[in-house]
Amino acid sequence: MSAAADGADRHASLAALHDEITSCRACPRLVEWREEVARVKRAAFRDQEYWGRPIPGFGDPDARVLVLGLAPAANGANRTGRVFTGDRSGDFLFASMHRTGLANQPTSVSADDGLALTGAWVTAAVRCAPPANKPTPAERDTCLPFSVRELALLPDLGVVVCLGGFAWDAALRLRRAAGAPKPAGSRRPAFGHDVLFADGGWLPMLGCYHPSQQNTFTGKLTEPMIDAVFTHAAELVGLA
User: Fold this and answer.
1) Which residues make Cβ contacts (< 8 Å) with residue 218, sequence separation at least 6?
2) How many structural domains is the chain composed of?
3) Which residue, 28, 34, 35, 204, shows the most beta carbons closer than 10 Å to its own?
4) Residue 146 is part of a domain; what is its CATH number?
């Protein structure tokens, strides 16, 4: 198969996965919550139509860097229909990706705002907005096959940037589900900011504090800190 044909086939498969994810109703609690939020709406967005469905991944199909988050925000991606779009976490994330050459603009306010990623794909371990931003283990595991299939359609990936400990744990589960060998040693690889775990058995994992307001407003995560992570990731895959 030619490179062009292979690329077209992957694009079609990613589109089909997109449609399957957005129509999923496997987790009753998440379905009820995401649809309630979309119906009631936050006052500031009362004139907007909410997406109110699961959120697929977004970015460059030839991505070298995978950015893995926790779950959509109830009034962010659950409203706009695009991962990390329409909330403060996304503002902080995409501004950094713009500064480090992975995004064409620093803002992400709607699914049609012109944002395009270069060399990067952004996704979440759980595809629906969960109550209190806390998915259950069963909900997390129900979404796992979507992530396995998504990664299989992104064959050029060279590193996973894990936004927070939940995403780090999800990446380790994704590693096992993808058939990678168990990490050597008795200790489980520990999450840390700008900490790299790379044993050659799967994609290298690079930790980053989640760009939540709890972290960014308190200074636990600053612009130079997140920029350093994306610069590190770009260097690891030859984009810097």
Assistant:
1) none
2) 1
3) 34
4) 3.40.470.10
